[in-house]
Amino acid sequence: MSQSIKVIYGSTTGNTQRAAEAIAAGLGGTAVSAADAVPDDFKADLLILGSSTWGCGELQDDWQSALPMLEAADLSGRKVALFGLGDAVGFADTYLNAMGEIGDIVKAAGGILIGAWESAGYPHSASTAEENGHFIGLALDDDNEPGETAGRIGRWCAQLKTEAGL
Ligand SMILES: Cc1cc2nc3c(=O)[nH]c(=O)nc-3n(C[C@H](O)[C@H](O)[C@H](O)COP(=O)(O)O)c2cc1C
User: Pfam families given for it (predicted)?
Assistant: First the structure.
């Protein structure tokens, strides 16, 4: 039986929303705004969670109402993939910190992160979403490298198909 896939995202100006819709289309899943998410959305076989980073390293606002649902979800032993949108030049030292924050919650809830993405070549200087030369999920930057986004999403979807056995 095919796996249910939910892409839950927080987006203020539409960049993360467009990425979420492209990822959902690439994997045969459904994209849902964090502002509209309900607890059942967090029960999908494969959860893909995305956020842009705002303020100085903060989660996108729509995640505030969805975070309690994520924290309450039973993620033990479940695969979860993350993606983030940020500005690796203008906010080089807080690049994608929102993805780091979501990653911490997923790990605390017992989830298994898949979809790590090599960080070499990005112009950032620091990120809480980076571990051992990799971001914990897909790193996108529509402010500085919009031409890279479609290709990165395509390669990441192919990687997830392998890692999640889709
Ligand atoms: C006021 C402001 C603060 C921002 N802070 C950060 C930040 O701390 N880290 C980061 O990586 N990007 C930061 N960004 C860049 C946004 O995350 C980026 O533009 C993103 O593509 C917006 O996606 P969205 O339209 O889905 O919300 C900031 C942008 C603005 C305008």
Answer: Flavodoxin_1 (PF00258)
Query: What ranges do the domains of the chain cover?
Result: 5-164
Give strand ranges (E) for 55-158. Answer: 58-59, 79-85, 112-114, 117-118, 130-131, 134-135, 138-140
Topology, domain 5-164: Rossmann fold (3.40.50)
Per-residue confidence band for 1, with pLDDT thresholds at 50, 70 and 90: low
Q: Which residue has the tokens 């959305």?
A: 41
Please choose from 11, 23, 58, 87 the residue to mutate so as to test ligand 1's pocket, defined by most ligand atoms within 8 A of CB. Answer: 87
User: In 10 A of CB 158, how many CB atoms?
Assistant: 12
* Model pLDDT for residues 117-156, shown as the tens digit of each residue: 999 999 999 999 999 999 999 999 999 999 999 999 999 9
143 Cβ below 6 A of ligand 1? yes
For position 41, what pLDDT does the model report? 96
Beta bridge partner(s), residue 48: 7, 81
**Ligand 1 center to residue 127 CA distance, Å?**
13
